[in-house]
Amino acid sequence: MLLPSIFGENLLDDWFDFPDMRGLDQVEKKLYGRHANRLMKTDVKEHEDHFEMDIDLPGFKKEDIHLELENGYLTVSAAKGLEKEQKDEKEGRIIRQERYTGSMQRSFYIGDALKEEDIKAKFEHGVLSLNIPKKAKEIPTKKTIMIEG
Questions:
Q1: Could you give the domains of the chain?
Q2: Cβ contacts of 105 within 8 Å, gap of 6 or more
């Protein structure tokens, strides 16, 4: 029986959410669950004096992305399509929606020695590029206290 292409490979699996036993070697899919495609895929490169991170955020705008540095953790969050959808007669009714709407977040430990102004961020063509300098913790200088008496 042929099914329309708007359904997955097996209509009943989509309806009843039966586990897919094919492709057990797809570790990423099993590790991150059914929605592994929503994970922020990240590449990290190490250089002598800095790290480069490229995070895939396709379909997001610069305004949808938020970076926060707290207690040595750099948190990248992105959200889109959370506002109420307005129905328009010209656009029609949604039958199937596969593009991601919602929010996602990921944290990376980069150390306590860095400040917000040390990190450089650029967003182009759906890729967030971060330049994070390597910074050694400052060792406090040794101070001698004189004892009177």
A1: 8-39 (no CATH), 40-82+97-135 (2.60.40.790)
A2: 75, 76, 77, 78
